[in-house]
Structure formats: C-alpha cells, structure tokens
Amino acid sequence: MSMRETLLSIIEQSFEELNDTREPGNLLSFHPEVALYGANSSLDSVDLVNLLLAIEERIEDELDISFTIANEKALSQKNSPFKTVKSLCDYLQIELAK
Fold it and tell me: Are 55 and 10 in contact (CB under 8 A)?
C-alpha cells in the first residue's frame, strides 16, 4: 500500500470513528472532495478538531510517527490543508515524507 493510500485509509477510518458519535441521519460521507472546513462543510469546529485528533492518533499507531496536524505551518498556508479530504491528504503526505 502506498503512503497516499495509507493516509486515505487513516482519514476514512477517522471519519467512521466520528460517525460513531453522530445521529444516524447526520452521518458524514467520505470522498476526496468532501469539505472539512468552510461554508460547504458539514463539520462544526468541534467535529473538525475531533477528526484531526483521531487522524493524529492513527498516524502514531499505524506509522509510528508523532505529528500535530493543526500546527503553525498548516494554519499559515495560503491554501488551507483543511479545505477537503484531498487537500489534507496532500498536506500529510508532504509533511510526513520529511
């Protein structure tokens, strides 16, 4: 499995974990263009934080890498890595390869 596939799997599993806390009629769908932040997102700020924490935990468990996603670099980028699943995966792939 490539790093990108692994990261997408980690993000998808984290979506499923978040869905376990949501009402059946309010579940999040998972695909690369799902908005994580902004007007088109179905996540509120608490959901986004919980999703990012779940992803961080899975990265540490599965890849043995300790990484804080919402760091100064991520928050200061012109194009937010939190816009979509794809942009988050792209960001993680670049940052974890360093």
Answer: yes
Q: What confidence tens digit (pLDDT) does each residue in 24-54 have?
A: 988 999 999 999 988 889 899 999 999 999 9
Supply the CATH number for residue 25's domain.
Answer: 1.10.1200
Whole-model pTM?
Answer: 0.93
Task: Find the domain containing 58 and state its range.
Answer: 3-96
The count of domains in the chain is: 1
Q: What tens digit of pLDDT does each residue of 50-95 get?
A: 999 999 999 999 999 999 999 998 988 898 999 999 999 999 999 9
Question: In angstroms, rounded to a whole number, what is the distance separating the alpha carbons of residues 63 and 79?
Answer: 26
Rounded to an integer, what distance in angstroms lies between the CA atom of residue 13 and that of residue 93?
17
SS3 assignment, position 71: coil
Contact at 8 Å (CB) between 32 and 86?
yes
